[in-house]
Design goal:
With about 270 residues, this protein is mainly α. It contains 13 helices and no strands. Helix 2 packs antiparallel against helix 8. The chain is elongated and about 55 Å long. About 5% of the residues have low confidence.
Length: about 270
C-alpha cells in the first residue's frame, strides 16, 4: 500500500501542538542502545546502521568483552570482529569502520571520544547522523539526528517537505528551541517504531490523530486496498488502518526515507 506524504508543511502552532503531544506520550525518552561509556555508544551507533537496536544490544556485550576500549579495538583482527558482529548485517563494512574508528581515536584523540562535531565527523565511519547521536546522548548537546524513522514521521506530521536528511534536520529544528532538539529525536523515533510504522501506521491508537495531516491520506490509501473497496461497495465506513503485512513503498513523487545499500559512513 502506497502512502504519500502531505504536500505542505503544518503551521508553527500545529507543529508546537504535535511536539507537546509527543513529549507527553514519550516522557523520559532516550536511546535504546545499551552502553556504559562514550566509546561503547559510538561503536553501537555505527553498528546500528540498518539494524535494530535490540540486535545491536545482543551483539555488543561479546564485542566489548574482548575489545573493551579504543586501544584494544584498534589492534583487533578484522576477521575476528566480523565474526562477532556478523548478525548485525553489513558486517564486513561495519567491522572495517569500527576498527578504523578506534584507530583514529587512539592516533588523534588519545583513545578518548571527542565532544565536538568536527572531530567526531573526522573519524572513519562517522558521519553527521552518528555524530549527532553521540553529541546529543552522551554529551547532552543540542543536536538532532535523522534516521529512517525520524525522516518518515517528520514527513507524515507535516514538519518537513525535505528530500534529504539535512533538509529534514533543518526544518524540524526550526520548530524547536535548541534545548529540545535531542529529546525530539527520541520522540519521533519511538513514535515511528510504536505507532507511525512504515508499512501501515496505527492511526486508530495515535495520540496525534486529531491534528495529523496524514490521517486522511492514510485512510484514502487504505480505502484503495481490496479490503477497503469491498467495504465501500458494502456501504460500510472504511475503518481506520490497522497493522498489515503488506509491504509499503513510497511513490517516486515524494521524498523517500534515505536508505543505503551498505553500511558506509553516514552523511
Amino acid at each position: 500500500m502506497q502512502i504519500p506524504f502531505p504536500k505542505k508543511k503544518v503551521t508553527r502552532s500545529i507543529a508546537a501542538k504535535e511536539f507537546e503531544i509527543l513529549e507527553h506520550a514519550y516522557p523520559g525518552a532516550q536511546t535504546e542502545l545499551q552502553y556504559s561509556n562514550p566509546f561503547e555508544l559510538l561503536i553501537a551507533v555505527i553498528l546500528s546502521a540498518q539494524c535494530t537496536d535490540a540486535r545491536v544490544n545482543m551483539t555488543t556485550p561479546a564485542l566489548f568483552a574482548k575489545y573493551p576500549g579504543a586501544e584494544e579495538l584498534s589492534k583487533a583482527d578484522r576477521l575476528d570482529v566480523e565474526r562477532i558482529i556478523k548478525s548485525c548485517g553489513f558486517y564486513r563494512m561495519k567491522a572495517k569502520n569500527i576498527v578504523a574508528t578506534a584507530r583514529d581515536l587512539v592516533e588523534k584523540h588519545a583513545g578518548i571520544v571527542p565532544d565536538d562535531r568536527v572531530a567526531l565527523e573526522s573519524l572513519a565511519g562517522v558521519g553527521r547522523k552518528t555524530a549527532s547521536v553521540v553529541l546529543s546522548v552522551v554529551f547532552e548537546k543540542a543536536a538532532f539526528a535523522v534516521d529512517t524513522h525520524v525522516f518518515r514521521v517528520a514527513h507524515r506530521l507535516g514538519l518537513t517537505l525535505g528530500k534529504s536528511e539535512r533538509d529534514v534536520e533543518r526544518d524540524v529544528t526550526g520548530f524547536l528551541p535548541p534545548e529540545k532538539w535531542r529529546h525530539a529525536h527520541h520522540w519521533l523515533i519511538l513514535h515511528g517504531r510504536a505507532i507511525c510504522k512504515a508499512p501501515t501506521p496505527r492511526c486508530d491508537i495515535c495520540p496525534l490523530q486529531g491534528i495529523c495531516p496524514s490521517r486522511g491520506i492514510v485512510e484514502q490509501a487504505f480505502a484503495k486496498t481490496a479490503k477497503g473497496r469491498r467495504q465501500v461497495r458494502a456501504g460500510e465506513v472504511v475503518a481506520r488502518p490497522r497493522q498489515s503485512s503488506a509491504k509499503a513503498s513510497t511513490p517516486s513523487s515524494v521524498p523517500r526515507s534515505p536508505r543505503r545499500s551498505k553500511a558506509s559512513k553516514d552523511s
